[in-house]
Each structure stands twice: as structure tokens, then as C-alpha cells.
Amino acid sequence: MAMLEVNNISKAFGGVRALENFSVQVDAGEIHGIIGPNGAGKTTALNVISGIYDTDSGEIILDGNRIETLPQYKRTRQGLGRTFQNIRLFKGLSVEENVMCGYDHHSYYTVLGGLFPSPRRFRDEKKASEMARHYLDLVGVLSYAEERPDNLSYGIQRRIEIARALTCTPKILLLDEPAAGLNPTEVTELTELINRLAKELNIGIIVIEHRLELIMSISDRVHVLNFGKPIASGTPDEVQNNQEVIDAYLGVEED
Amino acid sequence: MNTLVANILTQVFITIIAVVGVYVLTGLTGMFSLGQAAFMAIGAYTAGLLVIRLGMHIVPATIIAVLLAVFIGFLIGYPTVRLRKDYISLVTLGFGEAIAALLNRMQTLTGGAAGLTGIPRKTTFTIAFVSAMVAIVLVAFFRSSKFGRQCIAIRDDELAAKAMGTNVTFIKMRAFLLSVALTAYSGVLYAFYLSYVDPTIFGWKKSADWIIMVFFGGVNSLTGSVLGAFTLSALPQFLRSLESYRFVIYAVLVLLIINFKPSGLLGEWELTPQNIKKLFSKIKMKFSKKEDKRNGNA
Fold first, then answer.
1. B252–A contact, CB cutoff 8 A
2. Buried-most residue among A209, A222, B97, B286 (CB within 10 A)?
3. What CATH number is given for B3-267 in this structure?
4. How far is A253 from chain B (nearest CA, A)?
5. Structure ipTM
6. B154 CA to chain A: closest CA distance, Å?
């Protein structure tokens, strides 16, 4: 059984069917790309999987457990990390504290430990800081640990967000348009990073992107959405030669 | 120390305890409670009544008063913290005014509008001072813990906080109850200090006062909130003759702050040994620069 199994999830907003019968199976170490034109339902798919929206039908199974009825934060605790299209770092916290937030649900000291320093709190905080620094180092931005995220460039903020999601120790990582707003060099570096994360950490990654080149170069499998419906799914080569995909992307020739 | 100053400072320290509570709620977590003063009323009345009517010792009376306030806070908070932030202020406003009205109506128990009199005067300057210091230290520890971090995360971006596995309702509730406990305790001290309480003291204006103090000093800084509480509650005491203009002065101050320094007097600056060192080296640099200039000119 795959690490993440999504079977026939759908989501409608009023009369708009934003997502219909979407399915995907992701194994550890695999990278899956979801592409489609603007408004195709890519982000909706991610939001339904991560629990921002409830699914109207279908099931989501993570590592053998049904999670489609769990609230968002519990899905994260089960092993589902994510980033956002428009970077959502916490402005009031330093970079290190931002990333430590991902680990906080692993530390178990109580409110009492929050008011009075206890050895347990000390131990947990130290571990959280170590984890944060480890993942910041892994994505290559450890030198910014003490800074405020506001002062940093877009590309670095993206990496911090990925580090923060990794600190949740996910089994599946969902990346929502990670290359948006990056320059070509940064995009290449990001591609390498995503590849490295999948192999080194042995986690499954789902990437959403509307740029074909990026998705085709990193994905093991590609899923194409158009107007909320999955129209093709397969290896990058198969998808690239699929007539329906070409039509959706380039338009149909009129006689 | 002369008695007048000691009296004023005692009241200031009592206010500071309530304001650090508001800091936890509004500064850290981004929730506005316009009924916060009602929890002060619950603390004050409960402790006062237990001592007067049941002849209880003040220590257990204080503990019971704070616990009761926290319990009521839990009942109010349970449905409220799930709401969007702006609705929280509406619900708490209604709750606060309801408590004030209730105290007014329950004449036989609370003395109604005439107030509750004859509470023993037990709060001394030392008690108020030590309590305020302990409250500040507790909140400082809370702020630097994972709970403080999660509160700030929720304030900045609730959706992203959830995506980090943060149980938002749970954390909001903890922050709310901590602030209720602090406010109730400040109410207890208040009752034992004035020996008299009446319902009009605890209206929404009091809650608004506290929020103004937090914003004046710096909503993102505990030091700022304490400084705001200190300045804005001590000033009117020294300028008694201007009492009737207090709200005008507050309004002007708030306008000035919002326009010229939206993050408050101190912004995010905190009083930590590290920051003090930095500040000193900055001042030193400035002085040495001046001296260099003087030497250069000479």
C-alpha cells in the first residue's frame, strides 16, 4: 500500500465543482507533480488533502490511517507537511522560532512548564532548537536563523518555509507552487533541493506548479487537472504526448 | 516613601497585573476582550464576599476567587475562542456588561449599585509590588516557551499555525485562561486594597483602558505593556485635576501613537540583559562619536 492514497476526492463551492474525482497514490521517496492551467483546482486538491477544506466524497489514507475526517492540525501530526503559495511565515518570530513551531507539537511539557522553567521544558526546547537548526541547515539557510523573515529575499523565505514543514517530520510533503516568484537560478537550486529531500529523507512529495518544464524535470509521475477534472496521469513522457493535455495547454485548433 | 506615592504605586502595580494579562491575550495571541474587567469584578466580589459573609481567611478566599474566575472564563471561552477574532470582542463585551448588570441586580448579595463595603484592607504596597513582579516573570516565561511561540504564530497566521500541527483552539484557550487568572487576581488585590467595590468600576471602559495601555507601550513587547500600564495609570493619579479630561488625553495619545509609532512606544524591544548591553554600547558609540567630532574641531 502506498504511503498516501487519495481516492476520488471531490470539492464543490456552491455550484462550482472545483475538484472532481481526484486520485493519487504517493510512495515514500517519490515526487508527484500536479499541473494544470490557472483555476484548474490544483490548490483545492492540496487544501482538501491537507485539511483546510473537508472533502465532499472519497477517502484519504495516510500510512494506513483514514484521515479525511480529521481536522487540519491532526493531519499534520499524522505526517502531512505543507507549504503555501503565498509564503506564510510568522512575522513576529525569528527564522529559528518559525521553524521550531513545526516541532512544538512533538514536545510535551505542559502549561505549568510554560510558566515555570522545568528540566523537561529545558530539554524539549533544546531539542526543538536542534531540530530547527538541523532542517535549516539541510535546506541551506542556517545562517539566517536569528533574522526576521520579513528582511529576507523571496527565495530564502521559500526555503525557510520548507524547513518549517520538514520540522513537522512529515511522511508526505505538499509544496504549493514552490517556484512562484523565483528567478531561474533559484528555480534550478530549488529543483535540486526537492530531489535531494525526496531521496535523503525518503518522503513522498507532491508539487503543484503551472510551469511544465519544472514539473516534467523533477516528477516521477505527473497528474494533469483541467476545470477541476483529472484529464491525464502518468510518467512525464506519457503526459507530454497526451492529446488532451496538449489541447488543454495550447488550445484546440479550430477548422 | 510618602504615603501618597505608596498608595498610587500600589494601585499602579495592581493595574500592571491586569495589563500583563491583557498582553497575553491581545499582544501575544491577537484576541481583544472588551469584557476583561468583568473577570476583575468576579475576583474582587468573590474574595470580598467570602471574607465578609463567611469570615474566610484571605488566602483561601483569593485562591477560590481566582479559580472561580478561571472556571467562568472556561465557560465563556469554550464557545468563544472558536469564533473569528473580531467576534471574540463582541461576545466578551456582552458578557462583561452582563456581569456588571448582574452585580447591580443582586442587591441582597452584592449590595447592588451601592457597592460592597467593609472588605478588610489587606493589600499592602509590598504585596502589590511582589505580585506584579511575579506576574511579569510568569508571563515572560510563558512568552519564551513553546506556548508563547504558538500564540504569536496564531496571531500572525492562524492557517499556517494549523498547518504546523498547532491545536489553535487549545492554545487560544490557554492564553485566555491565563489572562483571566491574572485579571481576577488583580481584582482580588483591588478589593482588599480599596475595601469597597461597586459594579460601575468594572465596565467595558476599564477593559478598553487596559488595551490602550498595551498598545501605548508596544503591543508586541511585554516590557512595553508594563511601561504603558505604569505611565498611563500613574499619570491620572498625579494629575487628579485633569480627571475629567482623562479620556480626551487617552484618545489624543492613541491617535499620536497610531500615526507616528504604530507598534507602540517600545515596538518589539524587550528588557533583556542582552538588549541592555546593546543599548549601552550604542550610547557609548554615540558619545565617542561626539567626542571625536569635538576633538576634530579643536
1. no
2. A222
3. 1.10.3470
4. 43
5. 0.90
6. 9
